[in-house]
């Protein structure tokens, strides 16, 4: 069996174990998993307006996709193809993130309790694709988050 496959299998098993695929889902542990690779995001989240919310509340793309993506990310990192502290992500998923915002903020409960907000936002969403169009980086302090690309804290060896 080639080295690639050994690494891939180890990585998938690790991702499933560490990612909370085995045993009960424990919310705080899941955040710890994310934070292991996303230190800047941890800080900007701590100082943002959603520190009470878990990473995956905004970033989930469904359980299966999360697991596949998680395994891929562990693989990319362990094979040195991506440094999550400094490299910009190759893709973001703004529409999924926005759907996750709506899952908390645009519920029938909100509609009942705050009809003005709900009506205003339903109207606005007819002209905008995502919540982020107006609420830039909700969940992260945008200034702290910007430091990530401006000032890598540790010099990289090639
Ligand atoms: C092993 C390291 C590692 C762990 C653990 C990890 N990530 Fe990532 N993450 C990465 C890498 C590497 C990328 C860039 C992937 C790419 O460019 O394709 C990334 C990209 C992302 C992105 C941008 C792309 C997207 O999917 O929208 C988000 C958001 C993200 N991670 C959130 C999380 C969350 C939430 C968790 C915890 C459930 C987590 N990450 C756990 C390494 C990791
Ligand atoms: C309230 C929602 C929310 C929470 C909670 C949240 N994020 Fe995000 N995150 C966002 C938004 C919005 C973006 C901007 C990109 C986008 O629109 O998808 C983003 C971007 C990111 C990116 C891409 C970085 C970049 O600069 O492009 C990563 C990685 C990430 N978040 C990881 C995390 C991690 C890890 C946690 C938990 C410690 C977390 N996020 C908590 C909403 C959230
Ligand atoms: C897990 C549920 C949850 C998710 C997911 C979530 N939020 Fe929130 N958000 C809250 C709660 C709770 C509050 C505080 C009470 C309130 O203002 O509704 C809040 C507050 C806010 C506020 C007011 C913040 C302030 O301090 O003025 C904005 C704006 C907001 N959220 C936008 C977003 C956006 C945009 C997203 C997606 C990127 C998002 N939220 C994702 C639960 C959530
Ligand atoms: C066209 C711009 C726009 C879009 C798109 C938008 N919002 Fe807003 N949002 C606003 C404005 C303007 C306010 C009120 C300004 C303020 O007090 O910060 C606001 C306020 C909020 C608040 C705070 C309400 C309060 O009582 O303090 C929340 C929560 C919120 N938006 C969530 C969302 C979510 C979730 C989405 C996506 C479904 C979204 N917004 C899309 C412009 C927008």
Tell me about the largest β-sheet. none
Determine Rg (CA atoms, Å). 18 Å
Structural class: mainly alpha
User: How many beta-strand runs?
Assistant: 0
Q: Architecture, CATH level 2?
A: Orthogonal Bundle
Helix fraction?
55-70%
Shape: elongated
CATH topology call:
Multiheme cytochrome fold
N-to-C span: 29 Å
Number of helices: 9
**Distinct ligands, ions and cofactors found in the model:** heme C
Number of domains: 1
Describe the oligomeric state of these chains in a short phrase. Answer: single chain
Strand content: under 5%
Order of helices and strands: HHHHHHHHH
What is the highest CATH level, the class?
Mainly Alpha
Note poorly predicted spans.
Answer: 20-26
Q: Kindly state the mean pLDDT as a whole number?
A: 85
Protein name: NapC/NirT cytochrome c N-terminal domain-containing protein
Keywords: Electron transport, Heme, Iron, Metal-binding, Transport
Pfam families: Cytochrom_NNT
GO cellular component, one term: cell envelope
In summary, what is this structure?
Residues 5-141 form the NapC/NirT cytochrome c N-terminal domain. Helix content is 59%, strand content 0%.
């Amino acid at each position: 069996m080639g080295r690639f496959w050994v690494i891939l299998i180890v990585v998938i098993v690790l991702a499933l174990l560490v990612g909370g695929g085995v045993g009960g889902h424990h919310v705080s542990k899941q955040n710890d998993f994310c934070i292991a690779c996303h230190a800047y995001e941890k800080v900007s989240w701590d100082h943002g307006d959603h520190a009470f919310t878990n990473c995956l509340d905004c970033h989930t793309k469904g359980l299966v996709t999360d697991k596949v993506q998680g395994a891929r990310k562990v693989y990319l990192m362990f094979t040195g193809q991506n440094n999550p502290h400094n490299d910009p992500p190759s893709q973001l998923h703004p529409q999924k993130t926005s759907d996750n915002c709506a899952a908390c903020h645009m519920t029938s409960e909100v509609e009942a309790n705050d009809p003005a907000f709900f009506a205003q936002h339903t109207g606005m969403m007819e002209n905008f694709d995502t919540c982020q169009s107006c609420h830039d980086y909700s969940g992260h302090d945008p200034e702290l988050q910007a430091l990530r690309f401006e000032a890598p804290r540790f010099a990289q060896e090639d």
